[in-house]
Amino acid sequence: MSEQMMIETDGREETAGKKPEKDGGRFETAYQKLKELADRMQDPSTGLEESIITTGSVPIFFMMRSSRSKRTASGRKKQTGRIRKAENSRKGPAQEEGNDMRTFEEYLALTEQHLTDPMPAIGAYAETLEESMKYSLLSGGKRIRPVMLLAAAEMAGGTAEEALPYASAIEFIHTYSLIHDDLPAMDDDALRRGRPTNHMVYGAGMATLAGDGLLSAAFEIMLGDMIAHQQDPEALRRRVRAADAIARGAGVRGMVAGQTADLASESERPSAPLLTFIHENKTAAMIIGAIRAGLFLGDAEEALQNDMERYAYDLGMAFQVADDILDVVGDEKTLGKSVGQDAQNDKLTWVSMYGMEASRSRLHELTEDAVSALEKWGSSGDFFRILVRKLEKRTK
After folding, report:
1. Residue 96 covered by a domain
2. What is the chain's pLDDT, residue by residue, as a tens digit (396 residues)?
3. Are residues 221 and 251 in the same domain?
């Protein structure tokens, strides 16, 4: 098949050298063929090029695209009239010139600016619920998960702006997990992000509902974005996969499973498999979910997905080992939360099982493993290399 070229213009793509069809019937025909293409792409036994060739007598490159907002954090402008090659000749991130990924601070600013934009409106009789939700959501924090999601989307070739609803959603979910984790029935913590925990201010009942509200709002946000793109099968496919990645990371095969094992560990005999399960699910699963979601939104190639998932796993495991260390040697004022809670609650941690020296060694080993996962991605992986090294040395 000769190399096909596509030109993206004013929100739609046309075959190079041809004028867009004006006839309404032609549009409907093209749209139907696009739906067939989307269906074929779901078949793992059929490659993208084969799907395009066999969709119909005419290759389908006409794709309805949602308009993309301008980049604001660093003054970048949306590129229009950009020439894109077909998937079989698309350059990967490591080969693209002019890698223009933003800094952590830029992604963080973008996250903070738009974090509550998609929050559903709450009725007058539930004002306390909204106040409680925002109390925890807007109390600061590292925003690691949404930042990684936005960066992964851009690393894969997408835009951070397009990924914002999913960045907000994953931070809503993370915040709900912290509210519930602090409850008297769980870890019974009084301090979070330098402030009294949610239940200390609003009571355990309202704190529970605030967590429930944040979790359900997260899925409402993602579903709303999917509905807004339901007429574009390709855009919808990427969004469904992103939401699925987040749901899996947060759910009964991810974070909730890890928290369950963490609770059970207080009365069970310590073991290496149990400790690994807790760390893999309680912490790493959500980090993997954030990066996978960003990659899906950016339509990442398989090789990038595989390497970034390995990176995400190592970073997630390292993040929890660092948390275990900081709970012993960290400063409560710097951390913004109580220290010594793991020992007080008889939690199974790397420090309790292997000691401080072995924990520091494991943290460094995981950090280097994460860096090595990015080896073949050149400057495109710089953001994530810098991030994991900074997290190794964090004090909060």
Report:
1. no
2. 443 333 333 443 443 344 444 444 555 555 565 566 556 655 555 544 444 334 443 332 223 233 333 333 333 333 322 223 223 333 445 344 446 799 999 999 999 999 999 999 998 899 999 999 999 999 989 999 999 999 999 999 999 999 999 999 999 999 999 999 999 999 899 999 889 999 999 999 999 999 999 999 999 999 999 999 999 999 999 999 999 999 999 999 999 999 999 998 888 889 999 999 999 999 999 999 999 999 999 999 999 999 999 999 999 999 999 999 999 988 887 777 778 888 887 889 999 999 999 999 999 999 999 999 999 999 999 999 999 999 999 888
3. yes
Please answer whether residues 65 and 33 qualify as being in contact, where contact means their C-beta atoms are separated by less than 8 angstroms.
no
Are the C-beta atoms of residues 321 and 263 closer than 8 Å to each other? no
Strands (E), 28-166: 83-85
Whether 324 is covered by a domain: the verdict is yes
Residue 10 sits in the same domain as residue 139: no
- Give the closest residue to 255 by CA, choosing from 281, 276, 290, 224: 281
**Is-contact 294 246, C-beta < 8 A?**
no
DSSP tag of 64:
B
Tokens of 34: 């696009």
This prediction's pTM = 0.76
Question: Which residues, including other chains, have CB under 8 Å from residue 376's CB and lie 6 or more apart?
Answer: 94, 307
| Same domain for 76 and 123 | no
Q: Count structural domains, the chain.
A: 2
By the 10 Å C-beta count (0-12 exposed, 13-18 middle, 19+ buried), 132 is classed as buried
In a domain, 260, yes or no: yes
For 53, 196, 259, the CA distances from 32, given in Å and listed in that order, are: 15, 55, 46
Query: 64 lies in which domain range?
Result: 5-85
Task: Calculate helix-pair angle for 285-297, 233-250, nearest 10 degrees.
Answer: 180
Q: Does 164 map to a domain? A: yes
CA atoms of 141 and 190, how far apart (whole Å): 16
Q: Are residues 44 and 192 in the same domain?
A: no
Rg, the chain, Cα only: 23
Considering the domain architecture, whether residues 213 and 276 belong to the same structural domain is answered as: yes
The CATH number assigned to the domain holding 160 equals: 1.10.600.10
> Roughly what angle, to the nearest 10 degrees, separates helices 233-250 and 255-264?
0
CA distance 130 to 266: 34
Phi–psi pair at 281, nearest 5 degrees: -100, -45
Q: Which two tokens stand for residue 77?
A: 């402008």
